[in-house]
Design a protein that fits this description.
By secondary structure, the chain is mainly beta. The protein has strands at residues 9-12, 25-30, 38-43, 49-55, 62-64, 70-72, 79-86, 91-96, 108-116, 125-126, 130-133.
Length: 136
């Protein structure tokens, strides 16, 4: 009952950023979790928690130059917290099943992570943003 087909795709929207030359990274796979669904994995060399947020694709990304070459890819007015994931050995991960529901077919969403606390000017590193295209 939890299936996504090969029409599902994940597209990278930006690069991660942080203090100095640090880059927090976020990866996603659709259909790759047990029983199909969404798998999120990431890594960061600093911080102890990753906040993963999700939104509909915004009109355009927002630059945060005060934090380095950072881009906010989620919609700042309409995002939800998808997960707070502990960072262990510089890695974090979570998987969720996605129901085989016509309401999800062709849906697009953006996910991005914020890792903290860090010594970046805003107190957190940003991961790269990812555009999820649900298939079927």
């Amino acid at each position: 009952p939890h299936v996504l087909d090969s029409g599902a795709a994940v597209d990278r929207l930006s690069e991660g950023c942080g203090g100095g030359a640090r880059r927090a990274e976020l990866y996603a796979a659709l259909g790759g979790s047990p029983n199909g669904g969404l798998s999120i994995e990431g890594r960061s060399s600093m911080g102890n928690v990753a906040q993963i947020v999700l939104s509909a694709p915004p009109m355009h990304p927002i630059a945060f130059p005060q934090n380095g070459a950072c881009t906010l890819d989620v919609d700042p007015n309409a995002w939800v917290l998808l997960a707070s994931l502990p960072i262990a050995n510089q890695r974090f991960a979570q998987s969720w099943p996605l129901p085989d529901d016509p309401a999800l077919y062709g849906l697009q969403a953006v996910v991005q992570g914020f890792v903290g606390p860090t010594n970046a000017p805003l107190g957190a590193d940003f991961t790269n943003g990812l555009l999820l295209n649900l298939g079927r």
